[in-house]
Sequence to fold (71 residues):
Amino acid sequence: MKKTNETYAAVFKEYPDVVTVEQMSKMLEISTKTAYRLLKSNTIKHFMVGRIYKIPKYHILVYLNLVDSQN
Fold:
């Protein structure tokens, strides 16, 4: 079993709990165009505030398979 709390605290600790598309692209070392594709295909769970994507850091860790998804 993966230690979710420890992983969450250690990985990407310099980023806030909810990140922007630009921050996510830096975290994953991908282009913003690729980041938008991941979000639009719902590969990484997110929510929107108006037209702005907001991505919980937890869902990025799930995408990277560093923590277990709790659906």
